[in-house]
Design goal:
heterodimer, B: 131 residues, 5 helices
Chain lengths: 128, 131
């Protein structure tokens, strides 16, 4: 689909929004289930945490963060264009803006999340 | 029904329920923008998920404040995520399949909302357990 229809930025923005949205929906299913599990079977939940904290778990965690951050920022772009239609003329610039903010905020998160997988100290420490 | 793009405009022209959902998607989006990004920052940047055991959750939920915030987030995310999936289903299916999938989706939303609420309300309070 992405290769056949060359809708450029607007179409990519839409496709990424949809894919990230469905991915986040799937994670919400998992996340409500795991917190429910923490209540009814604590040892099993604590085992599951080991999976979340593993190397592959942290890669997925970063992917989740990327999906959430893109969906949030592009969502703001959509709201801006919905309620301020003249901004639609600048939809490409807005989308590039989304990516600038995405990288600036996202990179520190990825470093923080991935550091333990490489045996490194996370760069940001909060009290503990 | 509610093909969002049929009219060439973002907002559905049919009125009623579809327009209400359109506005509620944007309203819940604003709430989730604050709640989810704050939530992700707390449980992925400030605290490593690997330490968030059952005891950690009990400490976080000792008292009504965080439970209330998390229940608001649960409510908004269930609405936003499942209504988003409704649009996806309506885009790619029609007829009986669409009807069946939508029924399954709405039932799933109610079931998940009940599960999340149950966990939030009945999670043992760390302070009360200790005393």
């Amino acid at each position: 689909m992405l290769l056949r229809y060359r809708g450029s930025e607007g179409m990519l923005a839409w496709a990424f929004h949809r894919v990230s949205g469905v991915a986040i929906w799937a994670f919400v299913l998992l996340h409500v289930f795991d917190i429910w599990l923490a209540n009814v079977n604590a040892p099993l939940y604590n085992d599951l945490l080991g999976l979340y904290g593993s190397g592959p778990g942290r890669v997925l965690e970063s992917a989740l963060g990327a999906a959430v951050l893109y969906h949030a920022l592009n969502g703001v772009r959509i709201i801006i264009m919905d309620f301020w239609p003249s901004m639609t003329r600048h939809h490409k610039q807005l989308w590039y803006g989304v990516w600038v903010v995405f990288l600036v905020i996202g990179l520190p998160f990825v470093v923080q999340i991935m550091a333990p997988a490489f045996g490194a100290q996370p760069p940001f420490r909060f009290g503990s | 029904m509610s093909s969002y793009s049929k009219s060439g405009k973002a907002k559905p022209q049919s009125g009623g329920w579809d327009v209400a959902v359109w506005y509620l998607m944007r309203l819940s989006a604003l709430g989730l923008f604050v709640l989810v990004l704050a939530h992700f920052t707390i449980v992925h940047l400030i605290y490593d998920p690997a330490i968030q055991t059952n005891d950690w959750i009990a400490a976080r939920w000792s008292g009504a404040a965080w439970r209330t915030v998390d229940w608001m987030m649960l409510t908004l995310v269930i609405f936003h995520a499942f209504m988003g999936m409704r649009t996806v289903i309506q885009d790619y299916t029609k007829g009986t399949l669409r009807m069946a999938l939508l029924m399954l989706l709405y039932l799933g939303a109610i079931f998940l909302f009940a599960m999340g609420t149950m966990a939030l309300v009945s999670f043992p309070d760390a302070v009360k357990v200790a005393s």
